[in-house]
Amino acid sequence: xxxxxxxxxxxxxxxxxxxxxxxxxxxxxxxxxxxxxxxxxxxxxxxxxxxxxxxxxxxxxxxxxxxxxxxxxxxxxxxxxxxxxxxxxxxxxxxxxxxxxxxxxxxxxxxxxxxxxxxxxxxxxxxxxxxxxxxxxxxxxxxxxxxxxxxxxxxxxxxxxxxxxxxxxxxxxxxxxxxxxxxxxxxxxxxxxxxxxxxxxxxxxxxxxxxxxxxxxxxxxxxxxxxxxxxxxxxxxxxxxxxxxxxxxxxxxxxxxxxxxxxxxxxxxxxxxxxxxxxxxxxxxxxxxxxxxxxxxxxxxxxxxxxxxxxxxxxxxxxxxxxxxxxxxxxxxxxxxxxxxxxxxxxxxxxxxxxxxxxxxxx
Amino acid sequence: xxxxxxxxxxxxxxxxxxxxxxxxxxxxxxxxxxxxxxxxxxxxxxxxxxxxxxxxxxxxxxxxxxxxxxxxxxxxxxxxxxxxxxxxxxxxxxxxxxxxxxxxxxxxxx
Lengths: 363, 110
Hints:
The complex is a heterodimer of chains A (about 375) and B (about 110).
Chain A: H1 2-30, H2 43-50, E1 53-58, E2 61-65, E3 69-70, H3 76-91, E4 95-100, E5 106-107, H4 109-126, H5 139-148, H6 150-153, E6 170-171, E7 175-178, H7 184-199, H8 205-223, E8 235-243, E9 248-255, H9 260-263, H10 271-277, H11 283-290, H12 310-315, E10 319-326, E11 329-336, E12 340-347, E13 355-362
Parallel strand pairs in A: 2-4, 3-5
Antiparallel strand pairs in A: 1-2, 6-8, 7-8, 8-9, 9-13, 10-11, 10-13, 11-12
Chain B: E1 2-5, H1 6-10, H2 26-40, E2 44-47, H3 56-68, H4 74-80, E3 81-84, H5 91-103
Parallel strand pairs in B: 1-2, 2-3
């Protein structure tokens, strides 16, 4: 009798452990993407759902080729699909033999930062360096990605850039922060100092700090779920680029959290509830609503003053633009001293896998 | 009158609302610097110059929190608190401090 009870107990425990592990695998794999996946993601499924060029090397190893244009403006779906594939492959435990950059002819600053975050996350999760080989890379791409710190991420020796090479766009080395960093403000200040060294002039530091401090606070308070199995550890990535010809400075901040649309509270006694019930409230409209003064995900009266700060850095210049990509939505404010403010809302079929905030200003 | 200079007495990069946001958050500034000074001194001047900048979360929690937590009324703070700046770009932060104090309402039970 005693043996029997013990035996049943062990069997129950084994089944329980099996169910628990399966549940955790599924949780890790689905993550914050917009669609569910099979428990064990087959390569064919990965390729079909992300429209990516994924070459199978063996059962657990793949090779992923990146598209010729990595850009959220002109090639959003393709760009996002490849980042999603990278994240899903990492979550599923696939080892990526090589990340192929050979086809890339253009990479926007924002896309480069999101790619850096995915590679960085892959390195943390799989516990090794993601490999790539730069011998066939376009020279411009090589120089740009070198500036952002890709060569360290990809375990490649930094290339030597010819001194006479024309510099049309420069990226700053990306900065990674987490909510565990006790003085994130210093990281924001470090970026500002790097920007000033790059452009050779002082920038609107107070407005930049306002925007960055609220973006960082938002990550700590709302962006990530309270999930002990989530390895993302409330991380964020920050960088900037400068184009001397146009005197255009772009500052980017990215987190891989749930996204603003998923953390926005409803006003229960309003039309928004009806819209959400009938799924007619788009993500871009939710981001716009989040920019309202006093709207907060914490339901506390003092909260909800922060997101409006984001626009101030753009408005501190003659021409500026704030773009917030979050989940499926894009909310953009274009500011010009001559023509005032224009707002643009756009929704996509694929999620950006978090929130990307991009400030673009003319110095 | 006691003077607290945020840049030298607290941090040049104050950020966030709660301790989970980092060491130099608005709650800590209110509880460890502002509140002791306001309760022991007749009048307190806060010098807001020379920091990297201020996010709304920090300013609202540090100053608006004085009213929300029931430590002071808006009227009492107008008599006791002086927000000082010398560089013109910090005027907007002085205005924001008073805006958040004016908007704050005591929480239930405070």
